[in-house]
What does this fold into?
Amino acid sequence: MAKDTLSVTDNRTGRQYEIPITDGTIPAPELRKIKTSTEDFGLMSYDPAYLNTASCRSKITFIDGDRGILEYRGYPIDQLAEHCTYLDVAYLLLFGELPSPDQKTSWTRQITTHTIVHENIKKFVDGFQHDAHPMGMFLSTVGALSTFYPDAKNIFSEDIRRRQIHRLIAKVPTIAAYAYRHSIGMPYVLPDNDLSFPGNFLNMLFKMTELKYKPSPVLERALDVLFILHADHEQNCSTSAMRAIGSSHADPYSSLAGAAAALYGPLHGGANEQVLRMLALIGSKDRILEFITDVKQGKGKLMGFGHRVYKNYDPRAKILKNMAHEVFEVCGRNPLIDIAVELERIALQDDYFVSRKLYPNVDFYSGLIYQAMGFPVDMFPVLFAIPRTAGWLAQWEEMLLDPEQKITRPRQVFIGPKRRDLTIAKVSTSKATTIV
Ligand code: SDX
It folds into this structure.
């Protein structure tokens, strides 16, 4: 009868080892038993960027990259995008089930009543340069929140953890809106608790002199769907950062600031901003082939294409491509969509991209929608961070409560100089250098 084990022979010693296979993985510490002598440290696995290493067991998000499947707590992303709100999905990610009507009422009230930020946050945001990048303002201000809520360090008190989760989900749109309003020299807008989560965000961004802002229902719903699509994505770079920082028992504000910093990178959540810059640079459909040639010669990347896990069409990109036209009916058509659609058509027929299984990812179409809605390009990573806050917090809490987890501390393969002694000549020379 087949056994769930790996039989390994160390040809250096001829010894054989049986390593248990669980959930398609082997426990890496078992490799340490494979030694050439009792003094030998034993084997480690070597996996730069963790291409083939599971860092945790998780019940939150499932991705099948080959089949282009994304599920939050078992629900397919397209069904959640069609039938739920972002707050429903945030609740699902955190608590494992969609809220009942009573739970939804209570959850919405808890989030709504935490949307206001301390007045000193305005002074903090005012301190940034007029042309400061909104994502730099966002992640700094989120980190600064840790100084307003020192009790957040009590991460093993469920009540205290819950309150910080409410505060962060509720306040990140306010902070994002403050960053935007600062960048355009407009006064900050207080939250309007009569509005929905996305409706209030639009209010804090775009309210002018009217007494009460009325969000466009189409844009309110489009933002809700965008937030659902961006809410979590298992162990991506920024979530891994959230887990790693949180594993040292840092407070959730400091951990989330680190996660946002990881998301800011152009290879990750900063890609949506780079896609729009790329489409603007291409400028017209007749210049696409020239751009593709440059990419194939290694002169740059096709931003918004490719993915570490998806080797098929990102299901989120499919939903966004279809949704774009609904937004354009309200906001006016973004002409760059023609370049994007033609660029996708050409790339998906080109062996360079097909052979590398490079397909459009979530960032390829999201920026076109954001731009049509009136967001400046540098706000796009912030718009990614707002909904991902729910995913980061769900993953952070799962890590904290996982008995298998402890402080993250990978090993290394040292390839530097062997032990050597300082010579007097070197010491005297270096001292002379230092003095000079
Ligand atoms: C997000 O992880 C997540 O889940 C992230 C995310 C989430 O929701 O959290 O889905 C959000 O970050 C989406 C990805 C956004 N980034 C971009 O669109 C930037 C452009 N994409 C690439 O930089 C790249 O595809 C990555 C970073 C997304 C994935 O990189 P990998 O898995 O490390 O793959 P790789 O760089 O090793 O590429 C394999 C090959 C290489 O060619 P060869 O060396 O084999 O010749 O594919 C090439 C790469 O040069 N390649 C690209 C390319 N992406 C990969 N070539 C041109 N354009 C691209 N976009």
Q: What stands out?
A: The first strand starts at residue 5 and ends at 10. The two ends are 75 Å apart (CA to CA). Residues 284-372 form a domain with the Cytochrome p450-Terp; domain 2 fold (CATH 1.10.230.10). Residues 218 and 354 are 35 Å apart (CA to CA).
